[in-house]
Specification:
The chain has 432 residues and is α+β, with helices and mostly antiparallel strands. Helix content is 50%, strand content 17%. The chain has helices spanning 2-15, 17-44, 66-71, 81-90, 125-129, 141-145, 155-161, 212-217, 254-270, 287-294, 299-328, 331-339, 344-380, 392-418, 423-431; strands at 56-61, 95-108, 111-121, 133-136, 150-154, 170-173, 176-184, 208-211, 221-222, 227-228, 242-243, 246-250, 282-286. The strands form 2 sheets. It has a 6-stranded mixed barrel. It has a two-stranded antiparallel sheet with strand order 10-11. A hairpin with a 2-residue loop joins strand 2 (95-108) and strand 3 (111-121). Helix 1 crosses helix 13, helix 11 packs parallel to helix 14 (392-418) and helix 13 runs antiparallel to helix 14.
């Protein structure tokens, strides 16, 4: 029976191709544009560490003086190096890593130098963040404490620099020689929660990892936000008056969270910091709560999403009106079908199949609109490239929404026609 309905729907689509294409164009454009903006917002607010985010916590300890705290915004990096070391030593029960984003210059004989995105971190960074080391090893805590000049490369950088095997390879970074001890899997969370989210939430992935102690000893360039007080701008980053680090802790159980929070509060109390929630000086933030606190979705994207939803609403109203008018002109035809023995349900199913045919066209146009729209947005450099990537899931969503919105538009007029109780009423309305 459904084969007959499908055949009839295709015949009707060809007979009224102008009407169906108009509906498909309206809904396809509205759905496609909305999908573009919805995809951007979802990427900007997505979970950057699926399967791990519930156990990743950000200890927050703002040691800045009251005058600096009230007069300038949160720099995003809340820890000094002395504070980070104390927390790392206090929490040996848990996996923790202190880190900061940086940059190093790679020199090659006879070739232009290259600036690399670096991550300066303590030894547990790979296990805490869940980054797989696919070749060689990570550095040890002892090597970190000794400020050893060793590095771990990302897979992408390793393929460019030493495709035949990187372990033991020598790199010239800032006129110093570093030895490669491992290669890590390419890792690009969106947003880059392990970086400075207040300044660079959607940037390209880290290319090279170095011990934090080595970065301090060699005075490597830090690109994350820094707050300095009680001294000049050239203050030693290892000092107690420079906050530039963040700390991430892996706390898989509620007991771990409670014990770590107690340890953090005890240390904050020793430093004379206020631990009340309203003071905003000390906190232990779950990853997703930390991201919510910062509000990372660009305001331009939020505004454009609202406008696209309004446009979609207008398209749905117009498409519903056009469908209602088109079905209204077929009252006599449908009344004759009823007179020949068709049930209300049969007529309704036929109309729904006809709507599905238009919905398929609408879904196809929505996918085309999404594809073109996301490319235009990405080419415009208005929004970060990390949240304007094209995704197969968004294409499927656009296609599905195209079909669903078409069915919703036809639902009311189809039900209205099918609920007519008598053939004389149908002919009277068809003549009106």
């Amino acid at each position: 029976m459904h084969g007959y309905y499908i055949k009839m729907s295709l015949i009707r689509f060809k007979q009224r191709v102008g009407t169906h294409l108009s509906i498909a164009l309206m809904l396809g454009a509205g759905v496609g544009i909305t999908t573009v903006m919805l995809s951007i917002v979802l990427q900007a607010s997505s979970d950057p560490a699926p399967g791990r985010s519930s156990a990743l916590f950000r200890p927050y300890l703002d040691a800045r003086p009251d005058a600096l705290r009230s007069g300038s915004p949160d720099p995003g990096q809340s820890l000094t190096w002395p504070d980070a070391k104390v927390l790392l030593n206090q929490g040996r029960t848990w996996k923790q890593a202190a880190m900061a984003g940086g940059a190093v210059t790679l020199s090659r004989p006879g070739e232009p130098s290259a600036r690399l995105r670096a991550r300066f971190a303590t030894s547990e960074v790979f296990s805490v963040l869940g980054i797989a080391v696919v070749q060689g090893r990570a550095w040890t805590a002892e090597e970190g404490h000794a400020a050893s000049r060793i590095v771990v490369l990302s897979r992408a950088l390793a393929e460019r620099e030493c495709a035949q095997g990187c372990v033991g390879h020598q790199l010239d970074l800032g006129r110093r020689t570093y030895t490669v001890v491992g290669v890590a899997e390419d890792w690009h969370p969106v947003p880059m929660f392990q970086g400075d989210l207040t300044r660079r939430p959607f940037v390209e992935p880290d290319e090279i990892y170095l011990p934090l102690e080595t970065a301090i000893a060699d005075k490597l360039t830090v690109v994350d936000g820094t707050a300095i007080w009680g001294g000049d701008q050239d203050t030693d980053p290892a000092g107690a008056n420079v906050s530039w680090l963040q700390l991430w802790a892996w706390l898989p159980t509620a007991d771990d969270v409670a014990a770590y929070r107690a340890s953090l509060n005890a240390y904050a109390h020793e430093k004379g910091l206020r631990i009340e929630p309203g003071a905003q000086q000390v906190a232990l933030w779950p990853l997703m709560d930390w991201l919510d606190r910062l509000g990372l979705v660009p305001e331009q994207a939020r505004m454009q999403l609202r406008l696209s939803l309004i446009l979609l609403g207008v398209c749905i109203v117009n498409a519903a009106a056009l469908l209602s008018f088109s079905l209204g002109r077929r009252r006599r035809e449908l009344a004759i079908r009823r007179a020949l023995g068709a049930r209300r349900r049969d007529v309704f199913i036929q109309l729904m199949w006809e709507s599905i045919a238009a919905g398929v066209a609408s879904g196809a146009l929505a996918v085309v609109t999404y594809t073109l729209g996301i490319r235009v947005v990405a080419a415009g450099d208005v929004l970060p490239s990390a949240i304007t990537a094209m995704h197969a899931g968004a294409m499927l969503m656009a296609a599905g929404l195209g079909v669903v919105t078409t069915l919703l538009c036809s639902l009311v007029p189809s039900f209205e026609i099918c609920r007519v109780s008598s053939l004389s009423s149908a002919f009277a309305k068809g003549a009106a």
